[in-house]
Amino acid sequence: MSQQYTNEAYQKDPADKEYNICRSEVPTNETIQKTSHDSESTGIADVRLRPKTTTTTTQKIRESNIWDVFRETSQDNVTSSDLDFWKMTFKVTKVVFAGVLFVLVLGTAVISKGTLFLVVSNIFPPIALQNSSLKTVNGHFRYQTTETSIWYIWSLVLILLAPYVFTIISCLWRITFKKKRPIEIKPLFLMLVTETVHSVGLSLFLFGLLPNLDPVSGSAFCLSTALIPAILNLVYPESSQSESDNSKWKLVRRVVSLVAMVTSVLSIAFWAVYVHRMEEAWEKHNPGLLILFILAPIFVSITWWANFVPKGDDESIGLKNIKRKLHKCNTKVYLIVYTWKIVVTIAVVTIIYSIECVNGKSCIETLYGARLNATLVSGTFGKTLFVENDVYGECPTYLPLQVAAVNIVSSYACYRCCVAANKILTQIPSFSLPLVLATPILITIMAAGFSRNELSMTTGCYLPFPKWTDGLAYDWSMIMASIMGYMTIILVTSYIWRQTKERMKHKDRIFVQPMYCGVLLDQSMLLNRRKEWDTKAIDVKINQLDMSLLETPENGFLGKDSQSPLRKDDTPFIYLCATMWHETENEMTQILKSIYRLDADQGERRNVQLYFNIWDPDYYEFEAHIFFDDAFNYEDGESRVNDYVKQLMKTIDDAISSVNMKIPPPYIIDTPYGGRLVWRLPWGNQLVAHLKDKQKIRHRKRWSQVMYMYYFLSHKLLSMGGGQERIRTVAENTFILALDGDVDFQPSALQLLIDRMRRNPNVGAACGRIHPIGSGPMVWYQKFEYAVSHWLQKATEHVLGCVLCSPGCFSLFRGSAIMDDNVMKRYTTPPSEGRHYVQYDQGEDRWLCTLLLQQGYRVEYCAASDALTYAPEGFYEFYNQRRRWTPSTMANILDLLMDFKNVTKRNNYISMLYVCYQMLLMVSSILTPGTIFLMVLGAINMAYPQLSLYWALVLNLIPVTTFIILCFVAKSDTQLAFAAILSTVYSLVMMLVIVGLIKQAAENGFCSVTTVFICFVAGVFIISAFMHPQEFWCIAHGFLYFLAIPSMSMLLMLYSIGNLHVVSWGTRESPKPTTGATLAKKTDKSVKTPPLKKGAVQEWLEKIGMADTEGKSGYMFAFGNLFRCMCCPQETPDIGEMKLSVILERLDDLEAKLVDPLADNMTTENESRGHVTFSEPSDLFEDADDVSNRTPRPPRHWTQDPYFRDSIPESIPLPEVEFWRELIDTYLFPMVGDLKQQEKTQAELIQLRNKVSLFFLLVNALFVTIVFSLQQVNADSGGNISIKLPCATGIREASIEPISIAFTAVFGVLLAIQFVCMLIHRISTFLQILSITEVGQHVCKPKFKLNSKDSDLTFEQSLELVRSMQTEKDDDTKADTADTDEASLAQDVARKKELWSNLTLRRREQQFRPLNTVLEENFMEVHRLVQELDTRSSVNLAAGNTIETLGITTTSMGEGESRSQELNSVQRALKRMGNKSFNTIVKMSKDPRIKRSIMQRGEVIGKRRIDNSTC
Questions:
Q1: 958 confidence band (pLDDT: 50, 70, 90)
Q2: How much is the pLDDT for 1198?
Q3: N or C: which end of the chain has fewer CB within 10 A?
Q4: Neighbouring residues of 800: CB distance < 8 A, sequence distance ≥ 6
Q5: How far is CA 322 from the centre of its chain?
Q6: What's the average model confidence in pLDDT over 412-438?
Q7: Which has the higher per-residue pLDDT, 757 or 1138?
């Protein structure tokens, strides 16, 4: 009976020669001895026989054992359950928030309109018969007063002018913090004309017409303000790029536009009829009111002209050209125009209430508060009595202003909610629907409210609304006018019912006008919603997809560039560029798993489009590249990849096997810069590892970035061909994702960064939220530090101006921005001065961002894009990392500040206020060590009051001075050791600070500046943590952060400045792997063996004669050696054993070189391919003639290493060879080690260190001296120079010192600014998270039925289907099991062997089978299932559910076996795909377009399979 194993990847054929080494070789004693020795020398405990001591062969042998089925997988830092939890949380939050927005928009719109008519109804009360018919609806309305208070008039003015003021403030903010383009005359002139007409018409509409109507009629009259949009909608109809759509719907849209214009005209006409019928006797002598009822709505509607005129191009004329020019300079134009609108509005209001006044200027005097009352007798508006104030009941005097305030707040809240609804893609339920319902609901509420006797506000105060006296009595003309107006709004704004796909639009892209209209809130929101003129038909791209894409079988990657069939010029293409050096296996695993996730996500999105014809608005393509610094070792003249490269190859195999997949071996390519390894990932994308040889190309991270930026943006991009416009378009949509070799991220994080780029073409770089991972107190500290810096600092930079540093561990850069002048070219500048090493090489990512900012690009921060990276876990490594970062940060910020004139001139997002903010931060950063020094001094004085301030100063000054001296004279390890000790001491001192703060708070309460400031800081941190729920527990490490303040804010700064001349990387500087050749060279010179490193205690023992000077221990027993063993243990290698290991290593290498058939085959193949080798020849062995009398062979190339036995050799095209050679010769040639130049550079660095240190120490010393002197003088004088607080009565020490409080105020103001900006940025992040959350039928999972008419299909459901189709199904395993059982029961031995062979062959083929092959097989199953669902032969739609929850049943028992077979096939499909996937397939079958695509693609694949089987 055969034994079954669940892990198919490890089941090999025992008869296979590749894995059955024991059968091909008979082990001899020598072989066993050699193998045993190799196992010991390599440190691998393996009892199996191995022909070679290589990791690859060992891995193959290990995989050959059928019983070795257990595996070890790495755990994700963020588990899938956590991701699913937050996804579901976001979905529920979006649904709830959409409902909240619906209520808020509807409620605020109703409140805004209701409060408006509350004010309007108290203007022009009917005191004469002239204007009583319209106002009272022939006496059916009764008003509370017969006088008009001027406060109601000014309340209307405030309501009308509030959005104008908001617009001016917004424009001033933009101009102040962001530079804008100059004004053009034509747009300014047109805007002044149209907005003047609008202001005049709106003032007449509000102050002349609405007061003459009752509230219900006035609400309906507001619907008649869309005539100009209706006309322009007919003149400039929408067009679609789909031919079928044009032919089918063009006439319909024309008819709808014509009907909208007709209904708009009829609405105004019916209102004229209504006014004429109601005031017939009056209008015969004074037709002015009737004329205004016709002209005012037309004047009001002119303001929305820009939304119904498409934006033209450079060659357009007329309104299209003006709109295009207006779009470029709208900020400054709006600032001028809306200031002018305020002037015009106030002037028109003054004119309306001053003409035909009975007592000359008395009306104006009353209006502006100079008189108590006046009488206005107007032939147009009628007669009214003005009074200064009219109090109704016990209501407050300024009730009208309070009502106006409620109106303004509700209107602005409605506007912001509308913006939020459009940002998160809930336009229809949370924007369109509530605004359309606002007016009908308002009329209903007013009708119900007017029937009541009183509308109580407070006890004794009632809202001055009119009341019904008896039943409704509206004329038919008013009802028809209202219906026509409502129809006009619905038809003209029909585009609001089409949900857009662009997430997180800026409000300027959502609305045409910068703000709402205070009088016509809901109408302005609907008419001002920007039409999607540039929206393309969704199906156009996919319908044009060539079916031949599926006819061509999938080719393997051969190392050549290929254009994706789905990639257009505007398709985002991302180059993932990770730099590696000395990463550990766990760190490598993180980035590889991230790449695998991205590969799966992109492959699924690609296949949704290819197979189901469903357009993906977020589709992207990518290539993953790893740039390996110092990847080669030279041993005896041979180049070999180092152990880190081998570790990468092993990690790739382990990481892919952890997700139950296999990929083919890599292609191996020799290049001018070293080498290249190319893997084909499971979903068809490629992973390329560029192995850099430091003898051929310049190493370090910045030069790796120069290398790949020139390669991708110069060589590959320009080789695509096409004109300049095509190159520019492709460059704008080409992005480089800069990564570290240990970063971990999800595909959604990258998608968020791409969204940032696509929203604004001026964004040159965008970074995400970096989360440090690891273990230990140093990582805990960094968790809080990273959190605070991202929560406050980066958010503030994003809101006020630009982010100054987009970290290289996870940042997206735009290709066109990097290609711009003074960016990439300047980035290649080699360091020629001492300061260049600090600014250029110590913080290359910050310098690249500095170049982008200086060129005028914006750098943004996306808080929702999360990435995890390993942080330094040791104190020394952390200090060395910050030793690089701190000077680089200050140098780049100083570079920007020194060049602030050019920066503010070229960059529209950096203003002088932002420069001042950065200057303030720079000053506070410089003075931070002195501030911390004084804080420690105060803590000592508070803990030990018997000590004077002088002694406290001395106690604190001694260790700090000692550390400063050590930074100049001692080695780095000594400095770090002293800093570690001092940090521990200062953490204890910080405990004294805590005790002192508690004591001061207990004694003084909040009558203490220190207590208030500490509470403020703590409150900011706590609120920030609550605003970031996913990162809330970072606040738990705040206590450790507080204890480390002296170390990280004072000692670290001193260490960084004192070691400014050190330009080493500081992290991951692990020793190079020791190889056999290196060890051989050491043992060949055993006569002069270098002395072993000795500890300090051992050297002291040697001096006094109590230790062996040779360092040997052996078997000698002496007190000195025994003591040495206890104090200074040190391993002494056995030289003889080392020699034996080297001899065996050389014999093993020699055997591989002489009889390695793979090397011969590779050499022959490379020669036949014209393969170029770029390694220089060198001797293979030292004294080779003594080893063998054979003619020495040429040195073996690194590609011939047995480690790459399974790799497929390839070569790169000659043009690329020439590119690399020229690039290396120009920019990347290795630096020649010139001793004089090195000495000169070191001298410059030391000189720079001395200058900076002198300035830094003097400034802080001066600051400390001034503050300390003031404290001492104040203490000696009894507090004469301090200011006593007003709350200090009877409380000790409740005073402030002017100098101290000044610096505290600076820190407090900076923190307050950061807190406010954090809140603004957090709201934006919340909306962005909701915008990317797709809510389908996942939140609530109803019971699915086949006869359901709900066929809404979300893109996420399509992705889920493709994801399930790309997975090996259980049927395959069952088939294997059936074959296995058959093999077990077979009596014939030959038959059994044949079945086992077929089974093994099938499983081995599945190891490297592309997932697209699996997808095609499952797609054919979907194709067959759609056919069955289409014929309805296997499903009874009228019957109940009999198969699980799907309602699939037979119609009768007599339909025969064919019916039963169809039912069984549906059952099998359901079991294979699951309910959710089957649900999606049923929905697809109900969509004619998708069903047609499935049928066509199924026919193509089926035909291709038939052709292949025939061949």
A1: very high
A2: 83
A3: C
A4: 177, 913, 914, 917, 1313, 1317
A5: 35
A6: 92
A7: 757
**Beta strands at 810-814 and 763-773: parallel, antiparallel or unpaired:** antiparallel
Contact 663, 682 (CB under 8 A): yes
Write phi, then psi, for 358 (nearest 5 degrees): -65, -40
* Pairwise pLDDT comparison (1421 vs 916), residue with the higher score: 916
**Residue 579 β-bridge partners:** 627, 740
Residue 1197 pLDDT: 73
Helix (H) or strand (E) holding 998: helix 972-1004
> pLDDT digit string (tens) for 156-186?
999 999 999 999 998 888 777 666 667 778 7
pLDDT of residue 935: 85
The residues, ordered by sequence, that sit 6+ positions from 1069 with a Cβ below 8 Å of its Cβ are 582
In contact, 376 and 386? CB cutoff 8 Å: yes
Closest C-alpha to 508, from 307, 308, 767: 307
Residue at 673: amino acid letter:
Y
Does residue 1175 contact residue 639 with C-beta atoms inside 8 Å?
Answer: yes
| AA letter at 422 | N
Arithmetic mean of pLDDT over the chain: 75
Q: How many CB atoms lie within 10 A of CB 1289?
A: 9
Instruction: Tell me the C-alpha distance between 1322 and 1288, whole Å.
Output: 39
**Distance in angstroms (rounded) separating the CA atoms of residues 255 and 259:** 6
> Locate tokens 């007592």: which residue?
359
Q: For residue 511, give the DSSP letter.
A: B
Tokens representing 1396?
A: 């086992």
What contacts 151, CB < 8 A, 6 or more positions away?
389, 397, 398, 399, 400, 401
Rounded to whole angstroms, the Cα distance separating 812 from 763 reads 10
| Amino acid, single-letter form, for residue 315 | E
Q: What's the whole-number mean pLDDT along residues 398-403? A: 86
Which residue has 């509470």 as its token pair? 1015
What does the pLDDT average to over 1379-1396? 52
Across the range 1307-1312, mean pLDDT stands at 90
Helices (DSSP H) in 307-398: which residue ranges? 319-328, 330-352, 362-367
Instruction: List residues bridging with 621 in a β-sheet.
Output: 573
- Which positions ≥6 away from 531 have C-beta within 8 Å? 238, 307, 308, 495
Which residues does residue 867 pair with via DSSP β-bridges, in sequence order?
Answer: 745, 770
Residue 361: both structure tokens together: 């200027």
Q: pLDDT at residue 414 above 90? A: yes
Contact by Cβ (8 Å): 532, 495: yes
Nearest partner of 698 among 825, 837, 828, 575, judged by Cα = 828
Measured torsion, CA atoms of residues 62, 64, 66, 68, in degrees rounded to the nearest 10: 10
- H or E stretch covering 141: strand 141-142
Query: 296 pLDDT exceeds 80?
Result: yes
Residue 1130 is which amino acid?
A: Q
**Which residues are within 8 A (CB) of 928 and not within 5 positions of it... i.e. 6 or more apart?**
1049, 1050, 1053
Name the pairing type of β-strands 686-692 and 674-680.
antiparallel
Fill in the amino acid letter for 1202.
P
Which tokens is 79 given? 């588990």
Euclidean distance between CA atoms 448 and 440, whole angstroms: 12
The neighbour count for residue 523, using CB atoms within 10 Å, is: 26
Using CA atoms, how far apart are residues 1278 and 242, in angstroms rounded to an integer? 86
Q: At what angle do helices 585-612 and 1411-1431 cross, to 10 degrees?
A: 30
Starting at the edge strand found earlier in the chain, the sheet holding 382-387 runs 148-149, 382-387, 373-378
Alpha helices (H) along 613-700: 643-657
Element (H, E) at 689: strand 686-692
pLDDT in tens, 618-663: 899 999 999 999 888 887 777 888 889 999 988 888 877 766 677 8
Q: Which residue has the higher pLDDT, 1471 or 464?
A: 464
SS3 632: strand
DSSP 497: G
